[in-house]
């Protein structure tokens, strides 16, 4: 029977770290959230509200912003980039806009980018650059969900990352791509699968994997539990569940539970990133943010 990965328990350690850091900072972090057409995105509204509740517990101010159209969205991002009181900026993707998500990600100042999705921050990840300022302990910001998965796995010493074979069933900018880089940087061999991966190749990859991470947003998608290698670690990042947790628990050594997946970890990593952004305020002078188009 698999040992359940306690996402909420591990997340609490990082929330506690963020609270201690915030308490000792003269200039407190301030987060601005931007939700595009909230009436179309109930899940994003719910996630925004969870972020606001977390922030209240941590003593962090949050300014909630909403945009009804593309021009309003762009104007909000420009204003918040220039606002010296705002130390972190968070948008909720997918936007469902005529604008490409990846273009909007690059409009957010890389030094206010608590989601780690700006090309500059992703470039640091590719180069395995860990610190913006090692003397002050300011680390580079990386995508929160991918970071959440890595920190969760690292919380269990029995799960070996170096030398492991990892299969990631997702190839998105927020999860699969950065997670693959992080695991590779830590010595794992990684294969990423997605909707264009032939089923036979997906099965072969999962069967060989010491670590399986699945994050398919399609509610109809299910990963065959018989593919799980005995003794593997399985992390289900999806909202609706990509695996039969009970069946996986019979084969895996470690697995997430349906009621304790990585959402809390992702939020905790967002606030860790916010602390780094707030501490990095003196380096913001002269930073230019490219215009769309």
Give a written overview of the molecule.
The protein is of the alpha/beta class and 293 residues long. The protein folds into 2 domains: 26-127, Rossmann fold (3-Layer(aba) Sandwich), CATH 3.40.50.10860; 145-260, NAD(P)-binding Rossmann-like Domain (Rossmann fold, 3-Layer(aba) Sandwich). Helices cover 39% and strands 15% of the residues. The protein contains 10 helices and 11 strands. The chain has helices spanning 7-23, 42-58, 70-82, 101-105, 119-126, 144-154, 176-185, 199-208, 245-249, 263-279, and strands at residues 3-4, 30-36, 61-67, 88-91, 131-133, 138-139, 165-169, 189-193, 211-214, 233-236, 254-255. Strands 1-11-10-9-7-8 form a 6-stranded parallel beta sheet, with helices on both faces. A 3-stranded parallel beta sheet has the order 3-2-4, sandwiched between helices. Strands 5-6 form a two-stranded antiparallel sheet. It is globular, with a radius of gyration of 19 Å. Mean pLDDT is 92; it is low at 283-293.
Relevant terms:
alpha/beta; Rossmann fold; 2 domains; six-stranded parallel beta sheet; three-stranded parallel beta sheet; 10 helices; 11 strands; 15% strand; globular
CATH class of the largest domain, named Alpha Beta
Tell the overall outline. Answer: globular
Which topology of the largest domain does CATH recognise? Rossmann fold
**How big a fraction of the residues is strand?**
15-25%
How many strands in all?
11
- Name the strands of the widest sheet in spatial order: 1-11-10-9-7-8
Q: Tell me roughly what share of residues is in helical segments.
A: 25-40%
**CATH homologous group name of the largest domain:** NAD(P)-binding Rossmann-like Domain
Query: Pairing-aware structural class of the strands and helices?
Result: alpha/beta
CATH architectural label of the largest domain: 3-Layer(aba) Sandwich
User: What do the pLDDT scores average to?
Assistant: 92
Gyration radius (Cα, Å) is: 19 Å
Number of helices: 10
Order of SSEs, N→C?
EHEHEHEHHEEHEHEHEEHEH
Give the tally of structural domains. 2
């Amino acid at each position: 029977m698999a040992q359940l990965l306690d996402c909420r328990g591990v997340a609490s350690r990082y929330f506690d770290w963020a609270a201690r850091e915030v308490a000792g900072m003269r200039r407190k972090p301030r987060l601005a959230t931007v939700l595009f057409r909230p009436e179309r995105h109930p899940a994003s509204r719910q996630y925004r509200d969870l972020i606001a509740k977390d922030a209240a517990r941590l003593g962090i101010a949050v300014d909630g912003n909403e945009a009804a159209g593309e021009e309003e969205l762009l104007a909000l991002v420009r204003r918040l980039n220039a606002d010296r009181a705002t130390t972190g900026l968070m948008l909720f993707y997918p936007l469902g806009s005529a604008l490409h998500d990846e273009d909007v990600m690059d409009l957010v100042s890389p030094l206010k980018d608590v989601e780690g999705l700006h090309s500059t921050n992703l470039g640091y990840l590719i180069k395995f650059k860990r610190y913006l300022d090692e003397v002050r302990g300011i680390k580079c910001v990386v995508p929160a969900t991918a970071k959440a998965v890595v920190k969760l796995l690292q919380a269990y010493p029995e799960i070996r990352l170096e030398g492991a074979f990892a299969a990631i069933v997702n190839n998105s900018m927020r999860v699969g791509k950065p997670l693959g880089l992080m695991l590779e940087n830590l010595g794992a061999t990684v294969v990423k699968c997605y909707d264009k991966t032939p089923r036979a190749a997906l099965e072969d990859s999962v069967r060989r994997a010491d670590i399986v991470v699945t994050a398919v947003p399609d509610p109809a998608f299910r990963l065959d539990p018989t593919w799980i290698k005995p003794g593997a670690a399985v992390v289900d990042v999806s909202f609706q569940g990509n695996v039969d947790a009970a069946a996986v628990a019979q084969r895996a050594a470690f697995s997430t539970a349906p009621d304790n997946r990585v959402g809390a970890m992702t939020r905790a990593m967002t606030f860790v990133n916010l602390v780094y952004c707030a501490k990095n305020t003196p380096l913001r002078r002269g930073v230019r943010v490219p215009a769309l188009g």
